[in-house]
Amino acid sequence: MFAGVGDDLDPVPPSPRPLRRAVEPMERRLRLRAEADFARVRAQGRSWRDRLFTLIILPNDQPHNRYGFVVSKRVGNAVTRNLVKRRLRETLRHLDRADRVLRGYDCLFIVRPIVATLPFATLSASVEGLLGRAKLLQPVTASTSAS
What is the pTM of this model? Predict the structure, then answer.
């Protein structure tokens, strides 16, 4: 428009923050998403309970596990429910990457309301305990603890 007006303004510098997440999320193929899958696991699966979760498992004839989470509104508001699901996904992602969980199962975790008030370490210990009771958790060996 006018010569010389605004020529001294620099373009907006790129954001200094990286666009990648610090922790890679759980892959979509490792999640139960369809309502029919949830219903099948609930109807045909075997279950274990503790004070924080109910775990229901069913063999899936795939080379990997798929995980689903049922977090009702009794657990808290949307922010709290999403926090609980992120913590569960992170715990399971860590166990899967360490090859501690036997493969080939659909695992459904039904969350009890008390989970929202507990620290991450308690939640992780409960998940490991349930997987152990279901005989899906392999013991820690020197090769799995080094990774």
Answer: 0.79
